[in-house]
Amino acid sequence: xxxxxxxxxxxxxxxxxxxxxxxxxxxxxxxxxxxxxxxxxxxxxxxxxxxxxxxxxxxxxxxxxxxxxxxxxxxxxxxxxxxxxxxxxxxxxxxxxxxxxxxxxxxxxxxxxxxxxxxxxxxxxxxxxxxxxxxxxxxxxxxxxxxxxxxxxxxxxxxxxxxxxxxxxxxxxxxxxxxxxxxxxxxxxxxxxxxxxxxxxxxxxxxxxxxxxxxxxxxxxxxxxxxxxxxxxxxxxxxxxxxxxxxxxxxxxxxxxxxxxxxxxxxxxxxxxxxxxxxxxxxxxxxxxxxxxxxxxxxxxxxxxxxxxxxxxxxxxxxxxxxxxxxxxxxxxxxxxxxxxxxxxxxxxxxxxxxxxxxxxxxxxxxxxxxxxxxxxxxxxxxxxxxxxxxxxxxxxxxxxxxxxxxxxxxxxxxxxxxxxxxxxxxxxxxxxxxxxxxxxxxxxxxxxxxxxxxxxxxxxxxxxxxxxxxxxxxxxxxxxxxxxxxxxxxxxxxxxxxxxxxxxxxxxxxxxxxxxxxxxxxxxxxxxxxxxxxxxxxxxxxxxxxxxxxxxxxxxxxxxxxxxxxxxxxxxxxxxxxxxxxxxxxxxxxxxxxxxxxxxxxxxxxxxxxxxxxxxxxxxxxxxxxx
Amino acid sequence: xxxxxxxxxxxxxxxxxxxxxxxxxxxxxxxxxxxxxxxxxxxxxxxxxxxxxxxxxxxxxxxxxxxxxxxxxxxxxxxxxxxxxxxxxxxxxxxxxxxxxxxxxxxxxxxxxxxxxxxxxxxxxxxxxxxxxxxxxxxxxxxxxxxxxxxxxxxxxxxxxxxxxxxxxxxxxxxxxxxxxxxxxxxxxxxxxxxxxxxxxxxxxxxxxxxxxxxxxxxxxxxxxxxxxxxxxxxxxxxxxxxxxxxxxxxxxxxxxxxxxxxxxxxxxxxxxxxxxxxxxxxxxxxxxxxxxxxxxxxxxxxxxxxxxxxxxxxxxxxxxxxxxxxxxxxxxxxxxxxxxxxxxxxxxxxxxxxxxxxxxxxxxxxxxxxxxxxxxxxxxxxxxxxxxxxxxxxxxxxxxxxxxxxxxxxxxxxxxxxxxxxxxxxxxxxxxxxxxxxxxxxxxxxxxxxxxxxxxxxxxxxxxxxxxxxxxxxxxxxxxxxxxxxxxxxxxxxxxxxxxxxxxxxxxxxxxxxxxxxxxxxxxxxxxxxxxxxxxxxxxxxxxxxxxxxxxxxxxxxxxxxxxxxxxxxxxxxxxxxxxxxxxxxxxxxxxxxxxxxxxxxxxxxxxxxxxxxx
Lengths: 628, 616
Hints:
A: alpha/beta, 20 helices, B: 23 helices, about 60% helix, transmembrane helix (chain B), nucleotide-binding (chain B)
């Protein structure tokens, strides 16, 4: 059933059915936002341009690989020709005691066998190199591009999609390249060779074989159309199964606590049965195709044999030619079963490539400067802070919706500023503008007089570091996680930072201390402890300006105090912006900004605001009462 | 997406057959169709071996005799055989298409139902990606195994034997020459498959590692950008993808060598047979038709021979998949719990929620380590609310998980109104006890359904409104479709504070007798927190509640406070009592060191705005 030249292990009947986990979070919300429907605008021609740019540097090797395949197929398809020669020429020659032709057959056949094997080896190797280089290039591009895109893109594109772009979508391309494409080319090439050889052997017999391609082509098209639809339904069905599965397992606590098991069983059953049905449909579609193509092929064989044998009987055709034709026919029709499947994998890879091209077509909204400027040298060593100026800054999302109306704000070097206000007041946006996660729609953010947009990334991060609420830990040890703040830091420096922030005790109590792998069992690290690691990271980074965005939300009061103490000593003289909904944080601030609906409504020293009659004074009074 | 490496340790090498036999209960219902399909495939395969014999008959008979009528007959035979073969191929696929999809679905549904009922401790150990890959990829492998290798190992075995018999019976010498490479070829394929599987697994692991870097780079994007670390991430990515490329090339080289062997050896054997055959035809010892039939049969046998190695490899893979499946499936589910156990008349002193000498240690805790919770005696009287306060890592969350039996106590017992919770069925217990977790998870249904699932099924519109207003979650009405808006994984994403309020509404909607809240207000801003607290106070007036609290504001919701210190209850009393008498508590609430005079005194007054001018 397998073509001798195929390079992949024989695929199973009804394979091509790996669950398509991509885009698991299908958004049922029908909104006009392209992000919601996972269709980023792909500029026309971007997909083929991407493909061209991936293959361009490999042109020479693609050509060599193609040549290898051409020769390999020639060697493979020469066999039956030698059979014809043996029967029609060598046998009569032997009878004349001329062993020349027989020796020629022997040598020729051995040569063909060795050549087709050797070339097969060379071809698979060469093709793998091309494929792997394309994939390496593509993976790297997606990764670098995703990293270059701004935080606001990441917030809207969702991590799941980005991950499935660089995993499932690349994987479907890999499958096409390493299994589908070369097999498809091989099949097409053998079609061409065999048809040509048959036509050359005998025009009539060849013509019958070529004529059978017509119905075969129609069958393949029909299958492709019908199966394409079924496959799409099936991949939607399995995606729904996966989403339900993951949601249940990730939310196992509430599932149990709210006795959802039976309801879930029923819901999962519905999704599972839908997948079962489409899966069966796909397999049946394949069965129909197999029956159809076999019927056409076997009928063609019968017709060719009938006509050929008839002519051999009447003496107008050599027996060897008929034998060769029969052998060729077997080779010709063997791989058609799988032709339909290749076309499907091609379709899914094309869809994946288009999604990837759409992602790569996004331009980073926070680009690196062409000619970066340097920050001026710090005035004195004990005053490491820098002045921050928001100069006529306004911010609105690109899709509309103003978040921060135009404002001016100056934070003197070394000042600790607390920003308070309710959810959605614009506190985080202010912080993200300062960290250059976003660029302002109008105006400039200046660090010691230099526009943030003119700083290179490393220079910017020596200037401003932001610690956020979600304290994500990367796989690796605790020490490595802290060292993200400054990769060249020594173990002593790492431990000093952890001690300063009050994280040393819990880290020390972990099974392997600082060398505990955070992803391994036994490394139960609570949300509060993760935040402490995040702080140690920031301490180690030693920036001029530190932004804390609700970075203490999961800490208990003593933890928060330890952080504050560390900040008031270790970070003395640095400029700091602290966003918190806990008023205790405000205690270490020199100045408080109260924000509401994107505007700064109160601004002053904490004492001054507490003594006043504004919102902050009310809040603070309530908080004090709770401590009394 | 599987990110963590499989937790499978190297197990004793159990035989693949024994492992696969465990699938029998699932296959049993479709056995008739499966066996019929295998039989059909054997017949179809043998039919294709008859075709060369018809060819031989034609060449040696009518063609040699110049009998056109005989040719017609032969072609008719060929056509009939061809139609039969196509029909049987189709029949085989038709027979198994639906049943095997059904087996796969059954296996998946079983797994899902089972996983839902496994203890929470099990889920703590297993990443959901690992479970998912068992529920998808592994099951697909099993379906493919049932559809393909299982049948074709039999079919190809029979085909090879029949083919050999045909060839040897026609001419034993030629037969031996053509079949000569078969045994070494099968052996080579098998050896190759072992090696290939090893490299393939390596590649799979490396893809997993690469995926981890990708995932972390996306999930930790704010940290990477916040510290400007994208270069080092990119370096890690480049190294890993370079390694992967190397492994993939190794894989390709292995594949290339085996294909070189598969192509060369049989071809050489056929060449030898052709030469020898030609000599014998010339000598008149062999008919031309036999030679044609021979070569044709040899060609027909190539796939069955070549494929044995691959089929065995797929079988091995399927065995591994089965093992992975049952690894999870064999884990023991929680007993539903005895309903209506020994009912003891609860005395008034037994009312409320009571912990009696409770000890707890995580099942995977290293031996010898102290238990997470020890010697917990705590009595929350009916209608009373108790705050649970303790330093980070003191075991507060663990304690709350014991009440709805998300974890099982290691020793001691917990009673609700005098009834041991292990005497209640889990369903009953969880109806009585409502919970809100610190990490609020919403499901992919509407906001309204998310809230109402906290009730007992009788909760209606009015209860929904009441719960939303208690949790200050009226924002739900302003969502695009109001309370019918889809949320969760597949719907609108809500902020942490919004999700926390919905989760709180879910906990209170059923007016539970017992309420367990784990730091339920941590993501709320001060204004909202104050409003929620005011509303909660009314709810808590007649509910027995255990509330984990970090902040004085939350503590004030409760009538009394229990201080948890290193897994033990260190003190119980009112907030103000403990503030005065317990230094550790005062420290936790105010953050000042014990004995510090200025406990709770903001330093703010000492930092006048005037300093701003100085700094310039």
